[in-house]
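Recap quiz, item 2
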Amino acid sequence: MSDAVMDSHDHDHHHGPAHKGFKRWLFTTNHKDIGTMYLIFALVMLFVGGAFALVIRAELFMPGLQIVSPDYFNQMTTMHGLVMVFMVIMPAMTGLANWQIPLMIGAPDMALPRLNNWSFWILPIALALIGSTLFIDGPGPNFGWTFYAPLSTTYGPPSTDYMIFAIHLLGLSSIMGSINIIVTIFNLRAPGMTLMKMPIFVWTWLITAFLIIAVMPVLAGAVTMMLMDRHFGTAFFEAGGGGDPVMFQHIFWFFGHPEVYILILPAFGVISEVIPTFSSKKIFGYRFMVYATASIAILSFVVWAHHMFTTGIPLAAELFFMYTTMLIAVPTGIKVFNWVGTMWRGALRFEPPMLFAVAFVILFTIGGFSGLMLSIVPADYQYQDTYFVVAHFHYVLVPGALFGIMTAVYYWLPKWSGKMYSHKLANWHFWLTVISLNLTFFPMHFLGLAGMPRRIPDYALQFTNFNAVATVGAFMFGLSQLVFVWLIISTVRSGKPTTPEVWESSHGLEWTLPSPPPYHTFETPPHVE
Amino acid sequence: MTEVSQEKTSMTRKWMVRLSIFAVAMFGFGYALVPIYDLMCKELGINGKTGGPVLAAKSTQVDKSRTITVQFLTTQNAKLGKHWEFYPKITSIEVHPGENKQVNFIAKNDTNAKMTVQAIPSVTPSLAAKYLKKTECFCFEQQTLTAHEKADMPLVFHVDRDIPKEYHTITLSYTLFNANKFAKDKKS
């Protein structure tokens, strides 16, 4: 049992997928297949959500209304946010978890393979529901991804109901995925793999999964209340019937703030795997990394009202939420410190995953700093609902969460496919992406500080130059991602075969397997010293 | 099946059940936030809302040394439609803490149908809300007005004598909502 004999091919069952063609993907319970589907789904949706963003940026290229109507503009901001959060970042992270967690803890598969299949296949159904609102009569959801009541209740278009059920399905999918991840981590670790020996990526996902199970049901509750207000005569959010629209914001952000850590924590995990490999060192301060992640997760439940400083909450509450928000900078700072500490005096190799990881550390920290500025109550009165907020959260989500995913793809794609990509192409993708994203989002800081409001399709003349720059940057960013797609396709088709270790000084169970790993791995658990 | 894998299967089931219960409980918690929110707003007086009927202040306990200005504002919710009028007879009044006052608000239903409305109060500064005590208010219940009916709606209130020194002006604002779909009297 304890002998790690990987190539014991003396079983008589077959080793490939049970079905061929489309049925293979529809009925698969294999964690690698499901991981691949999640990642491809997220990649496709990145372009869909990106197209929505480009409609927004095209309209904002010049002042005045040129391309779309204000109502359509509102639909674009709503759909862009919903797609990017629920159908790009979250599925991509779940895809990484599916591929990597069993390989990293020495498990033969996820603990609940059939649940895993269903978790994925709910996603296209949710997409069909919400995507169809753009093609049917009447406007789609047009109140922003935060769907505040009463915009989404009293004033919401009929298509809001499609969005409500799509959110239910997306919540169900991510909750089932998270249950699966937690059960896998708790029960299927290889002998000797104690919790404190787990790779940081597995730790961050374990904590993220608990966050998802804790807050996605609250969001499901919020949209159910919306549905009841809209159709069943209740008045949760309707003042005229004794409810309170501000309460919607409290419930939404009780979900919403942990949600932003759901989006970023797995990316922290990826970076914590990549930096040690390319610094030829072990991670600096492993225990601190684990505790910091847990602290961020716990603190995320007591900061929600910093999204609501201007709603008229009492001064004492403003101060409380300001201080708790600033407190989150401490564990986050520990993480950044430890990444830099890992690189300190390491033998650094700037291969593509490391380039993305280093850019992550620098650019995510910029987003963190603007977050600290926003957490200051008196300053927030000035910044709220301006482009400064847009700049802030795009700096934590694009070079943060999205770069985390890209880092992971550059790091593990050779393992998954057994083939190495062209470093030249990867470097092109990296530099184009980094330059264009800064071109897109950095001017938004200035626009916000100068007072340009967000969510408005038109603006005053003095904002023209920076908006034009941001639009050019956005189109560059969008086109640069085609390089990424081409890189993935060309690697899978005709990359150079690679070794099991792939990277110099890579460490962890996944690198003991051949590249690509066989369809079934670790059927006999390896033994971890 | 070996012993080990049986043990794993039962552990898997156990954790799946626990986590599912946790998820369902959190769905319930989302709903529990509603009464928690209402209770906290009421107990801490942080929502700018005034409380329900209290006894009139005793006339012997008026604090003549201080005067507070109470201003009255009205807003009509967009869903009420254009054919309503709603305004206070006087827009502001000077009161001593502990002194009972009555003011009247006028509402007129200029539509051709019977309608039920509900007025929702809000006080600025919001922390002063708990010192504004109402003995009688049209906002305590829904008001039903027949077509083209005009109603004189009374508000009897006093400002509590415990009101901190820093409050000189209190603004009491009412928003009138269309409450047809919440009407207690189903015939309306």
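Residues 1-12 of chain A have pLDDT under 50 and may be disordered.
The domain at 21-512 of chain A is CATH 1.20.210.10 (Cytochrome C Oxidase; Chain A).
End of item.
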